[in-house]
Design a protein that fits this description.
With about 425 residues, the protein is α/β, with parallel strands linked by helices. It has a nine-stranded mixed sheet with strand order 3-2-4-5-1-6-7-8-9, sandwiched between helices. It is globular and about 85 Å long.
């Protein structure tokens, strides 16, 4: 076994802890990289660390995040407190690491963790081979060790055609009441969208500035939650108070102007109080944060899906999300955000609805917007399953009170233009206008 000992020593040196593990520990404590931490804690396990003390720190950080507590040097020591860990945390405190360095360290460390597991599996096979009763037994044991690695197993997204057909039959024959279609507030829109919103699909609502993107998105989420579908609103543009004000005005059919002025008459206050009594417990979560990244959105959505269920994700709006890679060109940044939201819809089996700004170049023209006006990236159109463009009709330069939902792209149905009532005074869009 001298050969095995030499291999163990030489390869072991290559796979031991490296500077990247310390960089990740720095990321836990640094204010400049704190926005990366939620995603990192989901991607990386404590046993991915070669240094057990740093792995213990990582495990403590995971527990703090699960408990909704802030990760600090003191809170980490409250869970794991040994002389070694105190020393490592003292070393990491005050150190700086860039986003690029942290992301690179994470990728390198995960790669090394995989290699260590492969090396350990091969070692077990080597040590077992001389003791095996036959070549076949030794080969079988070695195969089992390799198969035990997660990378060697069949992925969950790999399925035979026969199994796929069986699942399809279950889906197509399921009773209508078992379908997970999520209704929108507008029957005419539901008709075009095959019953409403569908989990796993991405919906883009585009509009020029001030044309009601936020109102439409809140209407989508509110109606879904009222019908029992857990929903979350990521509001980058509006604060919590404004979001709640709009939801209450739309739900209660109350005067939004009175709410914003905090001068609500008895009639409207009674309608709002009645709505609150009936719907204050709907499964709707609000996230009010102006510097969100798409990675933070994904992390929070995964937690919500795991802890309380999630069917609808609303993001208002795409171009205001903070870039993950500030060095990339803006068009590339927007494309990466758009793609990440599409992947999130598939991963969590949720309907993702995102508002998107249209170019201003035709804002004063009395014509319907086009897909080409989606601002800053053609990837938005490419990634979306459905694109709804908002258009306010005018006659001689005066709004008619009709907003058209221009279904400019519909991957599973027809395109159409649906005229709806524009009721901004109640922060909502009304049902279809008869012509």
């Amino acid at each position: 076994m001298n050969l095995i000992g030499n291999i163990d020593e030489e390869v072991g040196d290559l796979l031991e802890a490296n500077a990247g593990e310390f960089t990740l520990t720095v990321a836990l404590l640094s204010l400049s990289t704190r926005h990366l931490v939620p995603q990192l804690l989901e991607r990386i396990n404590p046993d991915d660390f070669a240094d057990p003390s740093l792995g213990s720190i990582w495990g403590a950080a995971r527990k703090l995040q699960q408990d909704g507590k802030t990760i600090t040097r003191r809170s980490l020591l409250g869970i794991e407190d040994t002389p070694t860990i105190r020393h490592r945390l003292k070393q990491a405190s005050g150190e700086y690491a860039s986003d690029h360095a942290v992301n690179q360290a994470a990728a390198e460390m995960l790669e090394m963790a995989k290699r260590r597991r492969l090396f350990d599996a091969l070692k077990r096979a080597i040590y077992h081979a001389p003791e095996a009763g036959s070549y076949s037994e030794a080969l079988h044991f070695a195969s089992e060790q390799i198969a035990s690695l997660s990378e060697a197993t069949t992925a969950d997204d790999t399925v035979s055609f026969a199994d796929a057909v069986a699942r399809w039959q279950e889906w197509v024959e399921a009773p209508k009441e078992h379908a997970r279609t999520i209704p929108t507030p507008w029957e005419s829109v539901n008709e075009v969208l095959a019953g409403g919103l569908h989990p796993g699909r991405t919906y883009v609502v585009g509009g020029r500035p001030g044309e009601g993107k936020s109102i439409a998105l809140l209407n989508f989420a509110q109606h879904a939650a009222e019908h029992g579908h857990p929903s979350v609103i990521f509001s980058v543009e509006m604060g919590e108070t404004e979001v709640v004000s709009r939801i209450l005005a739309a739900g209660a059919r109350a005067e939004y102007g009175q709410i914003t002025k905090r001068d609500i008459d008895g009639r409207n206050y009674s309608k709002i109080a009645e709505y609150i009594d009936s719907y204050s417990q709907i499964p709707l979560t609000l996230v009010d944060k102006s510097d969100l990244t798409v990675e933070q959105i994904a992390s929070r959505c995964r937690t919500l899906k795991r802890t309380q269920g999630l069917d609808v994700i609303v993001v208002d709006y795409l171009q205001l999300l903070k870039e993950s890679d500030s060095r990339a060109q803006r068009e590339r940044q927007v494309a990466m955000i758009s793609r990440a939201l599409k992947i999130l819809a598939r991963e969590l089996d949720c309907a993702v609805i995102v508002a998107c700004q249209l170019n201003r170049n035709a804002a004063n023209q009395d014509r319907k917007p086009a897909l080409s006006e989606l601002r800053e990236s053609g990837a938005i159109e490419q990634d979306a399953d459905v694109v709804i463009l908002l258009h306010h009709e005018q006659e001689q330069g005066i709004p008619t009170g009709i907003v058209e939902f221009v279904i400019a792209k519909n991957r599973t149905g027809k395109t159409d233009t649906i005229p709806l009532e524009w009721r901004a005074y109640q922060a909502r869009v009304g049902e279809r206008v008869s012509r």
